[in-house]
Amino acid sequence: MRQVFLDTETTGLDPNQGHRIIEIAAVEINNRQLSENQFHIYVNPEREIDAAAQEVHGITLEFLKDKNLFKDVADEFLSFIKDSELIIHNAPFDIGFLNMELGRIGLANIQEHIKKITDSLVMARELRPGQRNNLDALCRAYKVDNSKRSQHGALLDAQLLSEVYLGMTRGQEDIAINFSQNEKELPLGRVDQDMLKVVPANEDEISSHNAYLKKIQTKSSW
C-alpha cells in the first residue's frame, strides 16, 4: 500500500466556524525512501486569515488571492492520494478540514478515497507516553534536522513527518536476504543434494554423544 504523508495549513482552528484550507502538501514514501512524487498547492480561502494562524504559518491573504480555489484542485489532490495510507500528525484536525472542503463541493469524505488513515501523534504517544510529541519534539527525539522550520509550512512539515515516522518505525523493516542467481533458481522447499557436504561423526564423537545421552537419562530418573 502506498504511504502518503499529509499536512495542511488553514485560516484558523475550526472548520465548523467557517475556516478554510490554504495549503495542502502530500509526499510519498516507497520502500522507506522519500520519493520525488509529491503534491503541493496553495489555495485561495475566500476569507480572512486569523492573526494567530498567520503568525504560525506566515501565509497572507494577499499571497493567496491569485491562487486556485479548492474546487479547482480537488480532483488532482484526490488522484494523488487515491488508495493510499494517509499518515497525518494529529489526523482529526486535517481530516476535519479536508472533509469540510470536500463536502462544500459535493464530494465524498476523504475516507472514501483512501485505504487507511494513520495518526502519527497517536503512535508517538504510545511510544513516548508523558512526553511532548509535537513535530519539533519528535524531530529532536529521532535526530531529524528541522533547522529550516522557522514557521509551519505544509510541504516541509510533511517531509519532516515522513522522516520522523521512519524513525518511529525503525526495526520494523522486512528482513531481506540477498540470494545469488543460482540460489534464486532453486525451487522453494527443495535443496540440491549435490550442494550439501556431509561430515560423519567419528568414533570418539559418537562415544561422547552416547555418554551424554546416558547422563541425561540418569538425571531425568531423579
Structural description of this entry:
With 222 residues, the protein is an alpha/beta fold. The protein has one domain (3-168): Ribonuclease H-like superfamily/Ribonuclease H (Nucleotidyltransferase, domain 5, 2-Layer Sandwich). 40% of the residues lie in helices and 16% in strands. It has nine helices and five strands; from the N terminus they run βββαααβαβααααα. The chain has helices at 51-57, 61-64, 70-81, 91-104, 120-127, 135-141, 154-168, 181-184, 203-220, and strands spanning 3-10, 21-30, 33-42, 85-88, 116-119. The protein has a five-stranded mixed beta sheet with strand order 3-2-1-4-5, with helices on both faces. Residues 173-193 have low confidence and may be disordered.
Layout of helices and strands:
Elements (H helix, E strand, L loop, with lengths): L2 E8 L10 E10 L2 E10 L8 H7 L3 H4 L5 H12 L3 E4 L2 H14 L11 E4 H8 L7 H7 L12 H15 L12 H4 L18 H18 L2
Parallel strand pairs: 1-4, 4-5
Antiparallel strand pairs: 1-2, 2-3
Whole-number tally of structural domains: 1
* Main sheet makeup: 5 strands, mixed
What is the radius of gyration? 28 Å
Number of helices: 9
- What low-confidence regions span 5 or more consecutive residues with pLDDT below 50? 173-193
Number of DSSP E strands: 5
Q: What percent of residues are in strands?
A: 15-25%
Overall CATH architecture: 2-Layer Sandwich
Level of helix content? 40-55%
Q: Any idea of the CATH class?
A: Alpha Beta
Choose one word for the global shape: elongated
The CATH topology is: Nucleotidyltransferase, domain 5
CATH homologous superfamily heading? Ribonuclease H-like superfamily/Ribonuclease H
Order of helices and strands: EEEHHHEHEHHHHH
What is the terminal-to-terminal distance?
Answer: 58 Å
